[in-house]
Amino acid sequence: MGDVILTTSLVRQIRNHYPKARIDFVTSKQFTEILKFNPHLSNLIEYDKQSTINEIAVLKKNIKQSLSGGRYDIVIDLQRNLRTKILRSGLGNKYLFVNKLRLHKLSLVYFKRPLLKQIIPIPDIYRLAASPLGIEDDGKGLELWLPDDPPTYKPKKTDSVNKPFKIAIAPGAFHETKRWQKEKFSELIHLLKMQYNADILLVGGVKDKTITDWIKSQINFPYEDCTESNSIIKTAGAIDSADLLVSNDTGVVHIATARRVPVVAVFGSTVKEFGFIPYRIEHEIVEKALYCRPCTHYGLNKCPKVHFNCMNEITVEDVLTSILNILKSTFDFSI
């Protein structure tokens, strides 16, 4: 999910450079909601990740038949894997590819040393893939369009003057090593309510149900619940109403970023040097400098060192401090 949202600044920049071009985007059907209402695209083409080679061939044939001359002038491959290689073959007159910085990632995981002198956010890496076309950085952020957005992308913002603040909490993550403990999320939620009278919005998908159900069982005051749906649009609409999101290093971070909601992100087994950081939005990353980080690029089902100190050492006070820092700087909030 996050990878698709992170492409949206490039989509806009291509449209800016080629206002009359046909711009098609191919993505997995589970992520089509992210681009469904994006006005910069001409066509949104979905596929199933479980598709056979024959099914991909049929999809390619249908795409070719829709094109004048049977080919795109340019195909940009932002995934660069076997599936996209099969699909793109024969579809373009010219091909451009993302630099996946594999050696940089391997060096981080196995030697704990970055090969890059500075962090390059993933949206900038995507833009660099299109640099031969003269695509320029417009200085703007990500986009996730909702059905009722105005023609000029401008997500709704809450009234920062009014109190209490609304804090969205997203405690889930697909991999265990990217999950801050649910007990700490619960403690943070109660602290935000009892000490700062914050309104709480709990966010999560169906796959996070075990975690979110446990946290809900611990809450003894009214809160908003957005944990019973896998709709990305519904989640984005709910986050829209929040002043800030607290999340693990997951795709929800990029939903908030695209909707211009500040973020506090808790990083465990992964690190910001991979580039998956909140893009051009007020944010803080909470992490601990450990000799064993990062142990993975995507996340693992368990800590390879067993101790899980990357999350165990992050305290509720650490996260609360980052929340208060953003509220002070963004909303001139004083304790």
Topology as H/E string?
HHEHEHEHEHHEHEHEHEHEEHH
Average pLDDT value? 94
* CATH homologous superfamily label of the largest domain: Glycogen Phosphorylase B
The strand count comes to 10
Q: Helix proportion of residues, in percent?
A: 25-40%
Most strands sheet: 6 strands, parallel
* CATH architect. name of the largest domain: 3-Layer(aba) Sandwich
With helices defined by DSSP (H or I, 4 residues minimum), what is the helix count?
13
**Mind telling me the CATH class of the largest domain?**
Alpha Beta
Structural class: alpha/beta
Percent of residues in beta strands: 5-15%
Describe the global form.
globular
According to CATH, what is the topology of the largest domain?
Answer: Rossmann fold
Radius of gyration: 21 Å
User: Unreliable runs, pLDDT <50, ≥5 residues?
Assistant: none
Q: Calculate the terminal CA-CA distance, rounded to whole Å.
A: 36 Å
* Number of separate domains: 2
Strand order of the largest sheet: 7-6-5-8-9-10
Protein described:
The protein is an alpha/beta fold. It has helices at about 1-5, 10-15, 30-35, 55-65, 80-90, 100-110, 120-130, 180-195, 210-220, 230-240, 250-260, 310, 315-330; strands spanning about 25-30, 45, 75, 95, 165-170, 200-205, 225, 245-250, 265, 285. The chain folds into two domains: about 1-135, Glycogen Phosphorylase B (Rossmann fold, 3-Layer(aba) Sandwich), CATH 3.40.50; about 165-330, 3-Layer(aba) Sandwich (Rossmann fold), CATH 3.40.50. The strands form three sheets. The protein has a six-stranded parallel beta sheet, with helices on both faces. Strands 1-2 form a two-stranded parallel sheet. Helix 3 links the parallel strand 1 (about 25-30) and strand 2. Helix 8 packs parallel to helix 9 and helix 8 packs across helix 13. The model has no long low-confidence stretch (mean pLDDT about 95).
